[in-house]
Specification:
The chain has helices spanning about 30-40, 40-50, 55-60, 60-75, 80-90, 100-115, 115-130, 135-150, 155-165, 175-185, 190-200, 205-220, 220-235, 240-250, 255-270, 275-285, 290-305, 310-325, 325-340, 345-360, 360-375, 380-390. The protein is mostly helical. The relative contact order is 0.04. It has 22 helices and no strands. The chain starts with about 30 loop residues before the first helix and ends with a helix.
Length: about 400
């Protein structure tokens, strides 16, 4: 098979792969993970990574791979990134991992996350030339994702035209959706819409979700509603993403009551809302000054039990309470926030303290200030000190 991508291999000192110079391996995955998280020296981090390559749990734990590569990339030690990933190939010789397409895709994406596109392409070249495993559309999607995530839009379009034939794979709607995402990222919404119309495969719900998200971000209500009509016409089953898009669309148009009905519809159909489902509606009601309805959605979130409470919800509510002058509610909310060991938004707390002072409730205002000081530390405490210095206490 002719070469698809050309990239010279980096020279790797054999001493890097030698286990003779390494210290004793870590006794457990937990110890290894802790060491990698805390290590700031790139050379030592790479050494720890190499020491832990024998641990089965370490090998299976993808987040620790991503964390290690990300830390090395941020330190601009791409040479170490390449050495570690090349070592993965060498140490996997004749191993089951080498015969897995997923193993190669994992390496491709790690290179991509480090911004090392040529090395990612070379890894696909290694796979396609040596045919260590069967190559499927997953490999095509991996390379399309590499280009997409690195903002290489011209290359992603060229790749879609040429690489499927060279790999011997037929693109499905999954690959087509990655090209659609590229048009959206380029802010070519019209081209994105045209792409969906001329696709030689049937669009799925993910296709329409990508378009809906684009129109939502662009503020194009007409385009959004047009896509929704197409979804309903085709009888496609709505998922969490499409409901959240519709909720956002209604809240932006200040139709929060309708958005709340959509939330109820989701639950009745057995779809589990996420934090965005509730928070968007709470934020929407707060923006139109309907604090009572916002509180009801918070109560519903608690009673539904689908998600844990998150700080964003409470921050949104306390800002609204202060803005609407409901200081008793804001005071209660601030205590709840601090109780949950979150840091209340400074501007809301400043407004709360000033409001209390204006209403001759200086003692309560001082208590708020003291509780804030106890909750904060470091730079946050210093920043709050500057605010406190100008408060009318």
């Amino acid at each position: 098979m002719a070469s698809i991508f050309k990239n010279p291999k980096l020279a790797i000192p054999k001493s890097f792969f030698s286990t003779q110079t390494l210290k004793q391996p870590f006794p457990s995955f937990k110890a290894a993970k802790s060491a990698i998280i805390s290590e700031k020296n790139p050379e030592k981090l790479a050494e720890i990574f190499q020491q832990c390559s024998h641990l089965p749990t370490f090998i299976r734990h993808r987040p620790i791979y991503h964390l290690s590569i990300r830390k090395l990339a941020r330190a601009n030690r791409l040479d170490l990134v390449d050495r570690l990933l090349q070592a993965q190939k060498l140490h996997s010789q004749n191993a089951p991992a080498l015969k897995s397409e997923g193993f190669w895709i994992r390496l491709i994406m790690l290179y991509s996350n480090a911004g090392m596109v040529p090395q990612a392409l070379q890894t696909l070249e290694d796979l396609s030339q040596n045919r260590y495993s069967n190559v499927s559309e997953k490999s095509l999607c991996a390379i399309l994702t590499v280009y997409l995530n690195n903002g290489m839009f011209e290359q992603i379009h060229n790749c879609f035209k040429t690489v499927p034939v060279k790999l011997g794979v037929k693109p499905t709607v999954v690959s087509h959706n990655l090209i659609l995402k590229a048009f959206v990222k380029e802010n070519k919404i019209e081209s994105a819409s045209e792409w969906v119309e001329k696709m030689d495969v049937s669009p799925n719900i993910d296709t329409y979700n990508i378009l809906l998200g684009a129109y939502l971000k662009d503020g194009d209500d007409k385009g959004f509603d047009g896509v929704m009509k197409e979804v309903l016409r085709k009888g496609l089953e709505g998922n969490l993403t499409i409901y959240n898009h519709r909720i956002s669309r209604l809240c932006k148009s200040k139709e929060c009551a309708r958005a709340k009905k959509l939330l109820d519809e989701m639950v009745s159909k057995g779809l589990k809302p996420n934090s965005a489902s509730y928070n968007t509606i709470i934020d929407g009601f707060c923006r139109i000054g309907d604090l009572e309805s916002a509180r009801k959605v918070l109560d519903k979130m608690s009673s539904d039990g689908y998600i844990s409470h998150c700080s964003f919800t409470y921050y949104t509510l306390i800002r609204c309470m202060v803005k609407e002058g409901e200081l008793d509610s804001a005071l209660e909310m601030s205590m709840e926030i601090i109780k949950r060991k979150w840091v209340p938004p400074f501007e809301a707390m400043e407004g709360l303290v000033k409001g209390l002072v204006e209403r001759s409730r200086s003692e309560e205002a001082k208590q708020v200030v003291e509780k804030m000081k106890k909750r904060l530390k470091g730079d946050a405490l210093e920043s709050w000190g500057k605010i406190e210095a100008v408060l009318p206490l």
